[in-house]
Amino acid sequence: MKKEQELKQVVREKYAQIAEQGKVENAASCCGATTPSNKVYNIMMDDYTGTAGYAEEADLGLGCGLPTQFAKIQKGDTVIDLGSGAGNDCFVARHETGVEGKVIGIDFTPAMIQKARANAEKLGYNNVEFREGDIDDMPVNDNVADVIVSNCVLNLVPNKPKVIAEIFRVLKPGGHFSISDIVLVGDLPEALREDAEMYAGCVAGAIQKEDYLKQIKDAGFQNILLQKEKPISIPDDILSKYLSPTEVEAFNKKNTGIFSITVFAEKPGVDVSKPKLKLADLQKEENCCSPDSGCC
Length: 296
Fold this sequence. Notes:
Layout: H1 4-19, H2 23-27, H3 67-70, E1 78-82, H4 88-97, E2 102-107, H5 110-123, E3 128-132, E4 145-151, H6 160-170, E5 171-185, H7 190-193, H8 196-200, E6 207-208, H9 209-218, E7 222-232, H10 236-239, H11 245-253, E8 257-266, H12 279-283
Parallel strand pairs: 1-2, 1-4, 2-3, 4-5, 5-6
Antiparallel strand pairs: 5-8, 7-8
Helix pairs in contact: 1-5
């Protein structure tokens, strides 16, 4: 696999291309970044239709979950969206935080920033802004966010502990995140792991689920919960670009799993200006459990 900066450039170039495409073209590929499949149009993405605040023109079909649905955003919150793309999750978050809150989208692809800003201006949202920058070195001060969301982006960052540390830095004490991402259980074939296009397509950059959760814990977060988990299947016509027919058959029979997970965690501390979220209330949600409980 390429070095960190080379990987970032691959992702930046691919997502600049995606910014010029529509949702249909993006949804017809693996996280919007691989050879189109003629069998499955929704390989990873969840359906935002009907979600309050949803803006169709800002939805490029690149996500793998609905993190804002689980993020417990309150009126007046400051929310940061990591890898904000054309602004879809920012606009959903803006509906939750209201006009009295603030939403900041961060993306390192200039074409995405331009598209998101145009969408915000068209919608008349003066409390949503988009900043160009790396999410592992955020252009944000310490302790400013009540909530951080992200949708299928951390897997694209080569240095995941660094971006998790950045999330910890910019959250207020007592703040929390809800992040949807791709993780693995078992090893991917080498041909998939070493391909830059599959990296940009959200698969080759994914790490083991246990390692992902451990990195969050090691960064100092508490009350870590799996809010949602769903398996991801790569269609054979995409796999066949990288694997022989025999290898495709073997891959589909193995216990290798590719999953979309939505993870919640809190930064220790208390924000006295707002009520504390109760862990028991969070665990009542459907599909929600502690990663140590085994229920997922």
